[in-house]
Amino acid sequence: MADTLKNLKIKTSSCKRIAKELASYQKEVEREYSKTTEMKANNADPYDLKQQENVLAESRMMIPDSYKRLEHALIELKGALDELDKDIIKEGPEVKDAQEVITEVELMLLKNECKQDDPKVDEAQQVKG
């Protein structure tokens, strides 16, 4: 039973960490997109602009990977929580924390799915104007 609780704590922490990473990458993409747009508006040196576009592209590539890792971590966390239900442990701070993380991550994933359907996001995700 102690191993099951320990496993739940690990899965919960992992889910939290990956969610923070995803949010961080999303902010980085927004920041780099703004910088790229500003450089285009100011007619920056083509070489510098190309380098900035590469930075933006690299930042953008991290989002799908983080998204997939978060989905996987969420599945594992739910599995660990189900395992606890089998062991008749349905209350406690670890269980409550895991349930809160599951709710937050599901909401975060839902918001990201909505953003992917947004035409403004499609425009923002293009490397070149």
Automatic annotation (TrEMBL):
- Keywords attached to this entry: Chaperone, Cytoplasm, Cytoskeleton, Microtubule
Q: Highest taxon of the source? A: Eukaryota
Q: Does the keyword Cell membrane apply?
A: no
Identify the stretch annotated as signal peptide in this record: none
In alphabetical order, the GO MF annotations are: beta-tubulin binding
Instruction: Give the UniProt entry's GO cellular component terms.
Output: cytosol; microtubule
Keyword Cytoplasm listed: yes
Write out the annotated subcellular location: Cytoplasm, Cytoskeleton
Q: What is its main location?
A: cytoplasm
GO BP annotations of the record are: post-chaperonin tubulin folding pathway; tubulin complex assembly
Tell me the InterPro entries matching this sequence. TBCA (IPR004226), TBCA_sf (IPR036126)
Tell me the protein family, please.
Answer: Belongs to the TBCA family.
- Subunit comment: Supercomplex made of cofactors A to E. Cofactors A and D function by capturing and stabilizing tubulin in a quasi-native conformation. Cofactor E binds to the cofactor D-tubulin complex; interaction with cofactor C then causes the release of tubulin polypeptides that are committed to the native state.
- Name of the protein described by the UniProt record: Tubulin-specific chaperone A
Its source organism is: Cuscuta europaea
Phylogenetic placement of the source organism: Eukaryota, Viridiplantae, Streptophyta, Embryophyta, Tracheophyta
